[in-house]
């Protein structure tokens, strides 16, 4: 038996009938038609499905759509302002923070949350803030560089460093 869910996605109020067991990631992709949120692992390990729920980074494969009742959900599609990319999206583009791009939406959403909490993170703080996201293509160097560049563009200095070279996630 389907249940009604009402939530705001990227600034637009939605009301839809969903199966109670439908994951939020499937709701966003299949019901809302927002395919920028990726399904990477089905085990909540990779972070490709990260979105912001009421401003906090959440892996959308870890909750049901009905649990997002009355929430404000922001996906990668909701970051840009028209043709103007969000500073973190632009920084990923400018600093080659992606290769295949599959993990990129999750990294960007986690990065947006990180920068909302810490506008001038060190390299180690960036690694810690992104540790729930995995990239199978890069060495994380340009991802960290991208977050630092976005921090600078958003008003942080982006210059704080720790000198460590450990990849995100402690690898």
SSE inventory with pairings:
Layout: E1 3-9, E2 12-18, H1 24-31, E3 50-53, E4 56-59, E5 72-74, H2 87-94, H3 104-117, H4 123-129, H5 141-153
Helix pairs in contact: 2-5, 3-5
Structure overview:
The protein has a five-stranded mixed β-sheet with strand order 2-1-5-3-4, with helices on both faces. Strand 3 and strand 4 form a beta hairpin. Helix 2 crosses helix 5 and helix 3 packs across helix 5. It folds into two domains: 75 residues, Beta-grasp domain (Ubiquitin-like (UB roll), Roll), CATH 3.10.20; 78 residues, DNA polymerase, domain 1 (Orthogonal Bundle). It has 171 residues and is an alpha+beta fold. It has five helices and five strands.
What is the oligomeric state here?
A: single chain
The count of β-strands is 5
Shape: globular
How do the strands of the widest beta sheet line up side by side?
2-1-5-3-4
**Arithmetic mean of pLDDT:** 91
Low-pLDDT ranges: 160-171
Main beta sheet, described? Answer: 5 strands, mixed
CATH arch. level architecture of the largest domain: Orthogonal Bundle
The third-level CATH topology of the largest domain is DNA polymerase, domain 1
Classify the beta-strand content into a percent band.
5-15%
What is the compact description of this entry?
29% of the residues lie in helices and 15% in strands. The chain is α+β, with helices and mostly antiparallel strands and 171 residues long. It has two domains: 3-77, Ubiquitin-like (UB roll) (Roll), CATH 3.10.20.30; 87-164, DNA polymerase, domain 1 (Orthogonal Bundle).
